[in-house]
Every structure is written in structure tokens, then in C-alpha cells.
Amino acid sequence: MYDAADPFSRRAPADGADFAAGFADLRFGVPRRDQLEFFGNRDAAELFDAAVARIEALGGTSVEIDFEPFLTSARLLYEGPWVAERYVAIRDFIEQHPDALHPTTRAIIGNAVKFSAIDTFDAYYRLKALRRAIAPVWDTVDIVMTPTAGTIYRTAEVEADPIRLNSNLGYYTNFLNLLDLCAIAVPAGFQRDGLPFGITLVAPPFRDGALCVLGDAAHRAAVTTMGATRRELPAPRPVRSIVANDAEHSIRVAVCGAHMAGLPLNHQLTERGARLLRVCRPAPHYRLYALTDFAPPRPGMVRSDRGAAIAIEVWELPAERFGSFVDGIPAPLGIGTVMLEDGREVRGFLCESYAVQGARDITALGGWRAFVENS
Questions:
Q1: C-alpha 134: how far from its chain's center?
Q2: Domains of the chain with CATH codes
Q3: Does the pTM of the predicted model rise above 0.85?
């Protein structure tokens, strides 16, 4: 959820709705065979092949993708200037107590001082180019599936060769943050020695809800217990309660002005967890007026016998946040019942009729966006 106190927080776009409620008819990308790396672990290679087969059995279609741009991006994380971000986070500590850090941690983060501003911009431009190279992948697949790690090491092995082996462990994950992706890692079976294996499902940003649903399905298809506890997995929750707000606990609201996607007040919906359901029109029983005394200007939609079709959006808002949303609506606007063109009724913005006396009638423009674009 958007956090105004966090300078890095972002609002989810209106088109960030979940793309799937299961693997049926879903296309999932897998790295080309020559780009898969298991570091000599045959069990892991077999388990990944089995995981691909299971997802196909659930209705998914596997598509080989070129994984090299992802791998190149991953190398930028520790070999490029982004390590300086970690240095900044603990700068006072590392400079005042350098011996308090684990030697491996100190060796990795200490490399930050060798990078210049020129190196940083050079790497930033390289990353932008890699993001552009990866973008077409999402035109051909819905998600990407990889091993979570190509192999698994004993503690003593990592302590003996920490930098190289940690790099191996991050082979399939170190690119995620740099490429602004979301992901979920789930169990996918056990090696012959009893050690676990997992897969990671990756998608563009703001697809977290769908990944949770897909991850749950992939988990249940692979194992029936909760890790090493041997406890049975709990009964699955209804898909809709995971992907979206359940209809019994949400309210649908028709908006016709500044609350529409991309307009100045849309954040009042998105920061409350609302999602865009549909772009449509109400029944032709309404007229639209421009109330220019507001900042920003707002529309007034009034029921009329001389109504016409007007472009609106229907948003779904968690019921527990509906009250705070309505509380911020100033008179003469309010929430009433709006009839849609298909005859269904939802809550929606309406205006008291006295307020439109002398206001500009913009019904003929077809909607608020057209008014804004022509103002």
C-alpha cells in the first residue's frame, strides 16, 4: 500500500489488477536449457524439470526465454556501484567500527569506495538498456519460473568459499530488485538427501496478489506438508479472497471525475487498496456539469430526464475503508446509487441539483477526461 511517509513508495497503477487466478491458459517462461545452472546438482535439475511438468499439468504452457539479460542485470548488483547503496545504509557504523563486520561482508561492501559517479551513471544507463531488452519477455509470457537456487550448500562449504558460493545462490534472484520485479518462492520437493528444493515465480511489479495464488497452487501440487514440520497444509482459501477484495467485504464505487485513474484525486482510492474493475457508462439518466469553484475542478453528475451516456469508472474498495473515503467528500458532492448501462446499481458520486445552477453543462463531451483535455 502507498505510504506517503516513504519517499520511495509508489501507488499501484490502475491497470495493475491481477492477471490470473490459476495456471489454466497461463504462459510461463523458463530459461533456455543452456542457461539453466545447477552447479553440478543433478537432483535439483531433475526437480526443476518435474516442477515444469507439474505446472503444465495444471494448465500452464512453458515458453523458453533468453535469460541472459536477467543474468547480466544480476551481476550488476555486486559487481557494479549498487553495492554503494549498502555502504550508505551503514556508513557511520562501517567507518567507526570496521572490525565489527564479518570479513566477507566487509570485503563486499568495502568495494563501494572504488566506484565513481561516472561509474554509477554508466551502470544506470546499462541497467535501463537491460530493462528495455527484457520488456518484450512480458509480451510473450505472464510469469517467469526459475529454481529459487540452483543448488544448496552446507554451512561449512559457504564458510570456505563465501563470495563465490553466495553468488551461486543468487544466480536466479539477484536481478529482481534491479529490474523492478515481484516474485514469490515456494517449495517444490526434496532432494534424495532430504534437503529442500524450491521454485520462484516472477512477474512485473504490482502482480503480487496473483503470484500468491499461483504460488499456493504450485506449492500444493508439489508437497502436502508445511516444510520440515510434517504438518499438513491448511485448507486452501477461496481464490477471490486472495486475489481481490471479497464481494461481501467490498463496495463498488462509480467515479466520474478527479478520482478516475491517473487524475489528481485517484490516490484517495488507491491508498485505501481500491482496484479498478471496469471502464463503462451509466444508464442514460444523468447529466454532467463542471464545478470549477473546486481545486482541482470536479464534475457534478445529476440525475435528469434528459440524460446521456457519460464515461465513468467502477472501483472496488474494501468495505472497512469506505467510511474514511466518503468522509473526505465535500458538499455539494455525495455518494448515492448510480445505475449502470447494463441495469446494475452501484454506489457512486452524485451532486446536489442546486450546485449546478449556472454551471457549465459538459454532458455532450462524453465525460470528465474530455473536459480536462479541452480545458
A1: 17
A2: 27-80+115-241 (3.90.1300.10), 247-374 (3.10.490.10)
A3: no
